[in-house]
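pls ignore typos typing on phone
zinc ion + seq
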Amino acid sequence: MYCITDDGDIQKIYDGKELAEAVLNTIEWYKKDNEKLTHQNKMMHDHAKEVVKHEYEKEIKYLNERLALSYGEFASKKEKDAYDDFERRHMHDRIESKYNGGRAPYLIPTGTGIGTILHVKCPICGAEENITDTEMW
Ligand SMILES: [Zn+2]
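k done
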C-alpha cells in the first residue's frame, strides 16, 4: 500500500506481516555476515599463528647455530664445562707441558640422525666420558 506524505512524497506502507518479514530477513542477513566474518577472522588468526611459529623456529635455529659457533666444537656451555671439568680431573703430570703441546683430552664426535654424541678421552689414562648435551638436540 502506498500513501502521499505531507511533503507530497509517495511512501510505501508495510503491513504487519511484510514488516515482520523484512525484520527477519535483515536479522538473517546480519547473522550470515557475522558467521562469514567469524570464519575469516579464524582463518587470519590461524595464519598469523603459523607465521609467528615459523619465525620463532627460524630464530631459535639461528640462535642455536650462533651458540654452537660460540662454543667451538661444543654444542653448548654445558658441554664445554663438562670438558673443562674432565680436563681438570685428568691433569696427571702434564700441567707444565699443557701449553706447549701437552696431551690434552681429545674429543670423539659421533654423528647420529638426531645429533652429535660427544665423548672426551684422556690420552694418558684412557678414561672416556660422554659429555653430550642432549638438550641441544
Ligand atoms: Zn686421565
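The first strand starts at residue 2 and ends at 4. The chain has two helices and five strands. more later
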